[in-house]
Amino acid sequence: MTRMVRSEGYEPRFDINVMEGDEGEQIVADILGLASDRIEVKRKSYLDAQFYVEYEHDPGRSDRYVPSGIQTTTASYWAFVINDTGVTVLIPTRRLRRCFELVMGRYKAETHGSCPTRGRLISINDILKVDIHDGGQQQSLLG
Does residue 8 surpass a pLDDT of 50? Predict the structure, then answer.
């Protein structure tokens, strides 16, 4: 019989979150006809117009943050599954990266669990305004 040993900082929801994330990635990839490694799927629990985009994390709470999320992804798209609404917002990775280059949104740290993260809360308005073609901001989309 195998005995499960939990590491320090064990986050009991982690296994469930990973399973839900993997399942979400496959569902979205199937709908779009993409390989699942081409899409990064995040679950969004708040019903607002802000999207949390991680850029570094601290595995094992060692106080050593390393690049992650938007800095390291190889996915072409990020999909945000919004709570249990049935709504998924799909955003090209290059558009989110451009938001970071322009320092859009506001700094946010997520400190719960065994792997704290740092990121930015970026509004859908900023995501829509950013121009990924010439490096500027495109104002005409929203007024």
Answer: no
Asked whether the predicted pLDDT for residue 129 surpasses 80, the reply is yes
Please give the mean pLDDT across all residues of the chain: 79
Q: Rounded CA gap, 87 and 130, in Å? A: 22
d(CA 10, CA 15) in angstroms, rounded, equals: 10
Q: pLDDT of 73-93, one tens digit each?
A: 999 999 998 888 888 899 999
Per-residue HEC secondary structure of the chain comes to: CCCCCCCCCCCCCHHHHHHHHHHHHHHHHHHHCCCHHHEEEEEECCCCCEEEEEEEECHHHCCCCEECHHHCCCCCEEEEEECCCCEEEEEEHHHHHHHHHCCCCEEEEECCCCCCEEEEEEEHHHHHHECCCCCCECCCCCC
Query: Does 98 have pLDDT greater than 70?
Result: yes
The residue among 43, 39, 47 whose CA lies nearest residue 19 is 43
Q: Where are the domains of the chain?
A: 14-129
Residue corresponding to tokens 């859908």: 124
129 CA to centre of own chain:
19
